[in-house]
Amino acid sequence: xxxxxxxLALLAVQATAQNSNPPSPIDGLQYGVxxxxxxxxxxxxxxxxxxxxxxxxxxxMDVYLPPGLQKQEKRPAVVFxxxxxxxxxxxxxxxxxxxxxxxxxxxxxxxxxxxxxxxxDRIQESLRGIFDFxxxxxxxxxxxxxxxxxxxxxxxxxxxxxxxxGEHACKGIRAAVLYYGWPPxxxxxxxxxVLAVIAESDARPGVYDNLWxxxxxxxxxxxxxxxxxxxxxxxxxxxxxxxxxxxxxxISFWKNHLDPxxxxxxxxxxxxxxxxxLYANDQKKALPxxxxxxxxxxxDVQVLSTYANQLTRANQPAEAEAVYKKLLTAAPQNIPxxxxxxxxxxxLNKNAEAEKYLSTALGSGKMNANAYSRLGYTCLxxxxxxxxxxxxxxxVSMRPGGVDYYNLGCAYSKSNNPDKAFAALEKAxxxxxxxxxxxxxxxxxxxxxxxxRFKALLEKTK
Length: 462
Description:
The structure is a single chain. By secondary structure, this protein is α/β, with parallel strands linked by helices. The protein folds into two domains: about 5-260, 3-Layer(aba) Sandwich (Rossmann fold); about 270-460, Tetratricopeptide repeat domain (Serine Threonine Protein Phosphatase 5, Tetratricopeptide repeat, Alpha Horseshoe). About 50% of the residues lie in helices and about 15% in strands. It has 19 helices and eight strands. An eight-stranded mixed β-sheet has the order 1-2-4-3-5-6-7-8, sandwiched between helices. β5, α4 (about 155-165) and β6 (about 175-180) form a beta-alpha-beta unit. α8 packs antiparallel against α9 and α9 (about 285-295) runs antiparallel to α10 (about 300-315). The protein is elongated and about 95 Å long. The protein starts with a helix and ends with a helix.
């Protein structure tokens, strides 16, 4: 079923055909984009440029050029897609007010604007045709075919999306804008930024429920904007500043993805690259990069600490031990590193050495809540439950927190002290720890599950 804007447009065409000039005031095809630019009057228009000519017919495009272009100059272009086709005997889509003013507006902003014809019996072929033409011959019309933006609105969105998300889509398309349409379900490409603008009048129950889910599932670079208070076809019919602001944001979106990015004044930093890898959770690349940094900066405590911590996360305790010890040689009073080394030594069953470092840490007078919490967790995972409880007791006395109270409850549970365990778990809930699944599935709490208090505890996690 064609959407409401297209159906209204057809009614407007029929009304216009029955009446000579002037057009009816509710002929929607006469209205252009609601944002003006002073340069629009100086735009150069090349009409009916042939882009597809075969046995099935000819298709044309209109090209809107920024004023003052040099002979060989090329600019990024924005193509206003026709994904519904042109009906015989009716006004061409590219001549509608919205499809002749939008490309003119973009030309006034320094881009080449393009609107197109489309054969409704071969829409995908028509879309492929215009991009094949721009790739091969766009330079003749000042088009930089490697920097293309597109716009698809309303009923044009579905077929346009089929093309854009397909494996044969033009590689030069760098940014897509979808206005008040209904994108089909994914998969969505990770290499094509999309701005999807939803008109509030279209946001009926269930219509867009899965859109953001599909975007996240595909890790797609989409920006989804709710055009609050605006109707379908707002860029043509809502003559107000709210609509104009959305149009301005749209132009900025194309600009951000089609214009060159300014080069920074600074030189590339290895540290910044490593941080990016860490925050991307790309441990495979981060570890060798950190190793190289540790060799380059052998006395840098932060580099060594980060490298050792990542080795621990990668389950390489022996390698982590060596780096922690190197760090402590440079900074013997670094308690966080000492506490992490204790955890590694317990993991390697080097208990006597771990106890030696533990004694040093406890006697330093520099232990904070984080350090006691880390020691508690270390003892908990190696089965030293009584010691874990002692460290967590100290941690919560210094800084009460839901997670620490929960782990304290686990330590009491494993130590066969149910009364203290339930008291600590109650405190965990009071301090905001409501992870019901963790309470239900944690093997550390298995000794408590036969106790009637456990069910009552679960009720408080809802």
